[in-house]
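tool_call predict_complex ligand=beta-D-glucopyranose
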Amino acid sequence: MSYAAVAALALGCPFAFAQPNPALMGDKKAFIDDLMRQMTLDEKVGQLRLISIGPEMPAPQLAEEVAAGRVGGTFNSVNHKEQRPLQEAAVQRSRLKIPMLFAYDVVHGHRTSFPIGLGLASSWNLDAVRKVARIAAQEASADGIDLTFAPTVDIARDPRWGRTSEGFGEDTFLVSQLARAMVEGFQNGSPAKRDSIMASVKHFALYGAVEGGRDYNIVDMSPMRMYNDYLPPYKAAIDAGAGGVMIALNTVNGVPASANTWLLQDLLRKDWGFKGVTVSDHGAITELVNHGVASNDTEAAKLAIKAGVDMSMADKVYIKELPGLVKSGEVSMAEIDNAVREVLGAKFDMGLFKEPFLRIGKPEDDPVDLKADSRLHRPPAREVARESMVLLENRNKTLPLNKGATIALVGPLADSQVDMLGVWSGQGVAKQTVTLKSGLEAAMAGQRGKLLHARGANITNREDIVKYLNFLNWDEPEVTQDPRSPQAMIDEAVATAKQADVIVAAVGEARGMSHESSSRTELDLPESQQALLKALKATGKPLVLVLMNGRPLTLNWERENADAMLETWFAGTEGGHAIADVLFGDENPSGKLPISLPRSVGQIPTYYNHSRLGRPFTPGKPGNYTSQYFDQPQGALYPFGYGLSYTSFSLGEIKLSAPTMKRGGQVQARITVKNTGDRAGATVVQLYLQDVAASVVRPVKELKDFQKVMLQPGESRELTFTIREEQLKFFNAKLEYGAEVGEFKLQLGLDSQDVQVASFALVD
Ligand code: BGC
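tool_result ok
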């Protein structure tokens, strides 16, 4: 039913439209101005309130609050039966009939879980990621969702931070591309479409740079680093049309983001021209008191509204404090109006004024079973998951496995449905998730091979950690401990391994270990699993590690001792099938790391695009006062952009179209990539640039372009990369954005370290 019809019905007269004037629907500004003219202060403040369904308020009370015009939207409801009465309360019973909006964290899928952010990024396939967001939007909008708190585009260079899992890794260019693809997928040209959801990019800003990787910690960062490395992904999402921005929980150079006028107004609105709605993170406004920039909630509300926080998520601060602040003159009506205008604008853009039930639909169309398997998108989930896996090692062609072999499957993650989902898995249902064990069984059905299974170890033997993980706000305990002694489990696994031709060990983290508030000081595999692997190694059987984890782990022993190692992250609903596809060679792995894997925690940060130094580490001259850790080899254990294949590739020489580029001009780099092996496979040719001498210190190299190509055995293809002046630009010490004349080194490679080099110069 259209908005006008609902309103007219409610008032019993076809012409007695409620106050939002449908006649003005063609002119957003006029429509909103007209509506705002009729709003009381309390109604305005009500629009700024975003409530979490469930924990914050019982449903009947919530409906009354909505009818009283005291709520602008909710999040965490994915159920038409919950949403419909609220929308009815809004558009039938509230004085102004302003529709509610319904939001949710649709991060890497909704009902279907796709791989976590790091996995999606490992695909280096923008079309695939756009499709993931599209499907997620279709599923979420079918559940009445109008707005998602995604994409998460925080650059993460410290894998101690648990939320590294959610984003797309360490690289500004790759994350920016993925940010754009996600927004395009969610919104599909317009958030007003029935099967679109509005994207709100998060966490603005710099959340991934929390000091020490400890969640919620401060961020203190030079402006140049901020502008060059950390801010571009948020901007890319906004430029792609993201209608919302979620404000980060952290401080930005001494001022919490939620009270940061420079961030939310000068940068976001004035410099970037953002025209959408800003939403606080969960309880962030009242937390301004904890930060110590507000002495009480009144002051917190004042700071946040003045800084530019439009909607307050899950705290009562705005609703309680803003009316009084306006009355006392400390907050102006114009400041309230600015925020209200954005909330109403977002609702307008979501199509809710035209059709408040656009995504809720009619009761007779409600899904009988929200969790029905028919509501999932399994084939695309399997496809993307196959592409998200990174082959780290493959000695003696241990992989692919033979379906005729006897395989010993061991490890605490081999048959765990819940972990496969990864965190922020929306409405993903553990029971609908394919584990590695089920995936292997399905692939081996009807084959000569045999699958043996033993758990071998718990995720960890540390009860304190298990308790912590189960304390995170899950509905039911997630980490279940096998009560047997660690040794009994290892003995069983070793006995099983001895009967097999090859061991597949599924090891890594419980999903909750890579989550919000899940920072770690160590990034090794937990000891229980290390002990298992050592015992398995001693059997002498080929050892294949299937890693499931949400952040880079330090895999030194594993690198030396595993015959093959496949990083699968948390691969989602179809994870087990997808991993089996890769292990058996039905899919040739093509994933590339979107983040460097460190050798140790002490070596962090290990990001590849670090700044140049006066005394860079010089191989072969270890005692030469060069920048290094003397007690460990230098550089990442596995570098950014790295990933093997079952085939091999070679790159020819770089051919440049010209030795110089004029301002505004371009240079083409051509290179031939050849599949030199005996299987079809895909690889990613990566283009890096280095500014040889600039007015400020620039990175050793930066990713500026890439192409993923599929090649048949023996096939070669010439690729052309076009480099434009835009790709040479950066923010200098005065934060002026531009390219400086001089030499540039262009590097093309199949990872960030093993590259061909050529040079050109930018000239005036
Ligand atoms: C997280 C956000 C999330 C919000 C709502 C917060 O704890 O930091 O990323 O969108 O909760 O679920």
